[in-house]
Amino acid sequence: MRILGVASASAAVVLGLSSSAFACSIGDFKAEATCTGDKGQIVITDKDSSRTKAHVIVFEKNDAVETQVAEADVTGSAQGTQTPIDVDWKASTTYRVEVKVKSGRFNFDKFTPDLVTPATACKKEESPTPTASDSPSPTKSAPAESATPTPSASDTSSAPAATSSNAPSPAAGDSNLAETGANSNTPLIAGIAAALVVVGGGAVFFGMRRRGARDNG
């Protein structure tokens, strides 16, 4: 009987230790804020070797107010199973993770230690700055038109006129001679013409008198 009692006690101790080793507790859960590119996540690590299914709810703490931002189901393992939950977490903000387990003899609803996010949030991907080669180059005609205006046809035709107007004008005496046709020989020619008229008139007069005398005789 004594032997059977010792054996029973040993079996109970072994069963108790084994059941406690496979028990699901809040200490099996850990929360961590991470980034995947510009996407924020809170990763839940579950080291529950009993592989008991748990429901996780994430709350954002703002002073005395807590706001639920995400939830998910997780299942752990002895090595630790990581389950990422998409949360656009804010920098330097406190989050709490509530773990609910309702499975047979495991039944609890507790919070993990508070999670404080890093001082820098997940960076957004910045658009590349366009280089000089990427920017459109200005057309050749635009600078030429803006720098030096092309002269019009009227401007071109007026240029010779401006040049001729700047040339020295002829003297006043030359201009009068060109218009009247007179020169220094004009008085001489006029005198000769008058003398010829007088001589011609005299010849006609004497010729008529001689003819009249001849008719009378």
CATH arch. level architecture of the domain at 25-116: Sandwich
Overall 3D form: rod-shaped
Largest sheet features = 5 strands, antiparallel
The SS-based structural class is alpha+beta
Mean pLDDT: 74
Order of helices and strands: HEEEEEEEEHHHH
Amino-to-carboxy terminus distance: 222 Å
Q: What's the CATH C level of the domain at 25-116?
A: Mainly Beta
Radius of gyration: 63 Å
What proportion strand? 25-35%
The helix content, as a percent range, equals 25-40%
* Number of continuous helical runs: 5
Beta strand count: 8
Instruction: State the CATH superfamily name of the domain at 25-116.
Output: Immunoglobulins
CATH overall fold name of the domain at 25-116 = Immunoglobulin-like
pLDDT below 50 for ≥5 consecutive residues: which ranges? 4-21, 156-164, 171-179
What does this structure look like?
By secondary structure, this protein is of the alpha+beta class. Among the domains are: 25-116, Immunoglobulin-like (Sandwich); 187-217. It has five helices and eight strands. The strands form two sheets. Strands 3, 4, 6, 7 and 8 form a five-stranded antiparallel sheet that branches. A hairpin with a 2-residue loop joins strand 6 (94-103) and strand 7. It is rod-shaped, with a radius of gyration of 63 Å. The model is unreliable at 4-21, 156-164 and 171-179 (pLDDT under 50).
